Every structure is written in structure tokens, then in C-alpha cells.
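Mods, move this if it's the wrong board.
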Amino acid sequence: MNKKYLNVKLYIWLLFPMLSLIFIFFPQIDLFIASLFYDGKSFPMNGTWIEKLFYYSVRPLMIILILSTLAIFIYNYFKKKNILNINSKVILYLTLVLSIAPVLIVNTTLKENWGRARPAQIVNFGGKKEFTPAFIKSDQGGFSFSSGHTAAAFSLLGFALLAKRRQKFFISLVLLYGTLVSLARMAAGGHFLSDVVTSFFIVYIATHLFYRLVFKKESTY
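Not the wrong board. C-alpha cells:
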């Protein structure tokens, strides 16, 4: 199971379609998980300081990392230095990771076109729209499938894979952060479990595929 195909472990290739089918044929899972965050009237975590912390932290964190990386690249280029090994290949890799998976696939293709209503919008949880299973296009005009915040948070894996030291620590940190962001979005009634799981797999696979494509080698993890 640890064998890699296109730099992605076999169990990831198998787990994603398997979980996708489970969400399609057993949509009650999404409803049950969402109900755990619902108190009968609302999603009480929505608007709390901890929910806002994870909701609003994603964009500035990405901006800081992107601008810092670009600054180091420009410095390296003009000063003929090699700080943190940030070169043109690194910039190409991060451009692909940060634009294709979270922006083009998740936000532009899925979120903008799938129409799935968010948990807080459906009749099951006090809303007016109808529930739609994951991967099934809907006419409800929602933006639940899949999670843009989750995709953005987990796309930080691209930076973690570039670490030369303590790489496992940084990967674990990103995975923890992405998980907490996902939980915050679910707790706020903004996304179903299948929304965040789908975004994670899309980003995880794309991150490792692009690593293999750009650097012509497999990542350590």
C-alpha cells in the first residue's frame, strides 16, 4: 500500500474513489455528521472566535508565505544566492499547486458550478433549500461542494514538501491546520464532511503529482 504511482501512495488512489462512492450511496453520513454541530435551531459554533480564527486565517497565511517566497526568489536571482533553495522550479511548482487544485478545480470548476446547498441552508437544519448528495449536481444555487477553505489550507502542503529539514514536522503541521480549518467550516454549517474530504484528496494528489512533474523525483512523504 505504500507503493507510489505518480508520486501518490496507492492507498490514496484507492481511498478517494472508495470514499466518494460511500458519500454518493450513503448520503445520510453527511447529514448525520452535520447534525452533530446543530443544536436544533442553529450551528452555535458559527461566528465564534475560534471559528472566525480558522476561517479568516487561511488567506493572510497564504499571502504571507507566497510573498515571502517570491521575495527570497528575487533576492536569490539578483544576488546569485541560494537561500532555502528557492529557484525557478520552486516557483513553478508552487504556482501549479496553488492555482490548479484550490483555484481551478475546487473553486472554479466545482464550487461555482455544482450548486450544492450548504448544511445551514437546507431544510434539515432550518434552511429553505434541498439537500443534495456529494458529486451530484444540484439546482439549489449553493456553493458547498467542495470546500474552498479546506483546499486552500491543505495546499500549504506544497510549501511543506519543499522543506529540507524537519519536513515530516511541517507536513504534520499543515495536515493538522487543514483538519482544524475543515472542522471549523463544518461546525459553522458551511460544509458537509464530503465537501472537505473531497477538497483534501484533490489537493493532496495534485500537490504530489506536480512535485513529481516539476522536480522529476518522488517526494519523501
